[in-house]
Specification:
This protein is mainly α. The protein has 20 helices and no strands. The longest helix is centred in the first third of the chain and has 15 residues.
């Protein structure tokens, strides 16, 4: 997966793996969370992978196992997640969303809607390596009905050329009757590029005089309605959608969005968060978290806006 340049966590310029490993080993023995945070949240993911490999070579032990032994709770979970390579982390998030009795539909949607088709294929390959299961089959078994149809279309999304005017007319037509046909919405919104879709959705709203969220509220129900709403938000303004996810300040959700996007586009999400809430993400984190967990999140966030 190729990360962008709008992340908050960048490569550490004075990177010396052997020196870091010595400090990490000592910190793990002393259960010194401060040193662990200082090093692991100030190296980018590629450097953390080098640290994990070097740590194992020099100590014959796994860095992740050491973190598990030295820490506990939410801080342990956060640092273990930061030690995963990006593709492994997305696969882990999908697995967690489907684990247990209930399914976390919105996390599934977040990843499926914000990742490209090629990225999802890479994640699927890693998922099979990690969990010995087929991701597509897992998604099918965890969803049903029209929502499953949307999830499968997102998982297998393509980029097929289309005419804006034709797509607009097709979608406008579905909103005229009492019952809205979901198939054109699913088909078009999972098979066109983002710029094309933004033009289409803007034109549909203009021609109908309706915000799409209002239209979906009236015409659809259940998980399909949620899925279409999330998909439209991710097409129109993905940074704003992810800022909304963080603004709930639910611990696992906040951790995972920030870790997932800290090397890609967290600067954009920070800007959207400020516009959405009137408060910077840096300040909001200080109101909701404390201690070492807060320190870790502030290090990932990086600075005040």
């Amino acid at each position: 997966m190729c990360w962008g340049t709008l992340g908050t966590v960048r490569p550490y310029s004075n990177f010396h793996p052997d020196r870091d490993v010595m400090e990490l080993q000592s910190a793990l023995e002393r259960k010194d969370a401060g040193t662990l945070l200082r090093i692991l949240t100030n190296r980018n993911n590629a450097q953390r992978q080098v640290l994990a490999k070097t740590f194992e070579e020099l100590t014959q032990k796994e860095l992740g196992a050491g973190v598990k032994k030295a820490l506990s709770g939410e801080l342990e979970a956060l640092l273990l997640e930061m030690l995963m390579p990006p593709l492994h982390y997305e696969a882990f998030r999908l697995q967690q969303a489907m684990a247990g009795l209930g399914t976390d539909e919105e996390t599934l949607l977040e990843i499926l809607c914000t990742r490209t088709g090629p990225q999802l294929r890479q994640i699927s390959q890693v998922y099979k390596q990690m969990f010995r299961k087929d991701l597509e089959k897992e998604l099918k078994s965890e969803t049903s009905g029209d929502f499953a149809k949307l999830v499968m279309a997102l998982f297998n999304k393509t980029d097929v050329a289309g005419l804006v005017h034709k797509d607009v007319q097709t979608l406008v037509e579905t909103l005229k009757g009492k019952k809205c046909d979901e198939d054109p919405w699913i088909n078009i919104m999972t098979s066109r590029d983002t710029d094309h879709l933004r033009n289409v959705l803007d034109a549909v709203e203009f021609e109908t005089g309706l915000f799409l969220e209002e239209a979906f509220e009236k015409r659809f129900s259940g998980d399909l309605r949620l899925g279409l709403k999330v998909l439209v938000q991710c097409i129109q303004n993905p940074d704003l959608y992810l800022a909304k996810r963080i603004s709930a300040m639910k611990t696992p959700q906040t951790h995972r969005v920030m870790v997932s996007h800290c090397e890609e586009d967290l600067l954009c999400i920070r800007a959207a968060f400020l516009k959405l809430t009137g408060t910077s993400l840096y300040t909001a984190l200080q109101k909701h978290f404390k201690g070492d967990q807060l320190t870790a999140l502030l290090n990932i966030c990086r600075s005040e806006d």
